[in-house]
Amino acid sequence: MGLFEEMQQAIIDGKAPVVKELTEKALSQGVKPGDIFPQVIIPAMNEVGRRMRDCEFFIPEVLIAARASRAATDILRPLLVGDDVARPAGTVVCCTIKGDLHDIGKNIVAMMLESSGFRIVDLGVDASPEKIVAAVREHRANLIAMSALLTTTMVNMKAAIEALDAAGLRGQVRVMVGGAPVTESWARLIGADGYGKDAPAAVELARSLIAA
Ligand code: B1M
């Protein structure tokens, strides 16, 4: 088994100390921190998702695997996020939308945006439209990155956009959306400015929305 497969297996098995040790080993062997997301964390969590769907895993196993994935991201974050925030590329309010507690993908997106020079205001999970509006006002954000992992919470993205409209802020902030059930056509339907398939696409999109 190669190192990446070992790391994936340790996440799936929820072995946080092993994930930590293998992440440090990978970095010491010259693996780029940014490669660990697409090659290890995302495929491992996809497998966790498959097992959950097929009733091989239940919530406790999923939570333990999510915690194990954090053992890697906690090490990777300081390596990806530079301290060059003197002239940020823009201010992004990041959140997982109201009703939704999934934050692994949102955290990866936030981390990659931050490492690309954006200032991040992270509202965490279960962010209500009111909280998003208040954060955009307070931080004079240029961009909002909203994440949803549940088909039942996607609709709250629309509510957030309507709340921005009602608050008279829609003209000054661009909105991008993402998360496993979200699509380009959903983004268009709810009046968002763009959809990011994954974290690198979110960074590209953020750059182009700010440039426009
Ligand atoms: Co939940 N869960 N979960 N879960 N969970 C899913 C999403 C599910 C698909 C599993 C399944 O059935 N196969 C299913 C949703 C079904 C649906 O709606 N169609 C599901 C369910 C049903 C539930 C509960 C309802 C289960 C229950 O209680 N019965 C419950 C809901 C709780 C709630 O939110 N209110 C629940 C709970 C949980 C845990 C708490 C146990 C845990 C979350 C822990 C945490 O996040 N801290 C959890 C997990 C871990 C998952 C799976 C297994 C993994 C999600 C994940 O982290 N993926 C997931 C199955 C799956 O997705 N394969 C599942 C890895 C992550 C890197 O990918 O988040 O997609 P993702 O992010 C990607 C892209 O989508 C994109 O970039 C990221 C990186 O490339 N992206 C963006 C994400 N946000 C973006 C924002 C952008 C741009 C791109 O901005 C513009």
Low-confidence stretches: none
Mean pLDDT: 91
The level of helicity is 55-70%
Widest sheet: strand ordering: 2-1-3-4-5
> What fold name goes in the CATH topology slot of the largest domain?
Rossmann fold
Question: What about the largest sheet?
Answer: 5 strands, parallel
Fill in the keyword field for this structure.
Rossmann fold, Methyltransferase, Methionine Synthase (B12-binding Domains), Chain A, domain 1, 212 residues, 5-stranded parallel beta sheet, 5 strands, alpha/beta, binds CO-5-methoxybenzimidazolylcobamide, 11% strand
Structure overview:
The protein is 57% helix and 11% strand. By secondary structure, it is of the alpha/beta class. It has 2 domains: 3-85, Methionine synthase domain (Methyltransferase, Methionine Synthase (B12-binding Domains), Chain A, domain 1, Orthogonal Bundle); 88-211, Rossmann fold, CATH 3.40.50. The protein has a 5-stranded parallel sheet with strand order 2-1-3-4-5, sandwiched between helices. Helix 8 (184-190) links the parallel strand 4 and strand 5 (194-196). Helix 5 (104-115) crosses helix 9 and helix 6 (129-139) packs across helix 7 (155-166). The chain is globular, with a radius of gyration of 17 Å. The termini are far apart. The mean pLDDT is 91. Bound molecules: CO-5-methoxybenzimidazolylcobamide. The site of CO-5-methoxybenzimidazolylcobamide has 36 residues, from helix 3, helix 4, helix 5, strand 3 and strand 4.
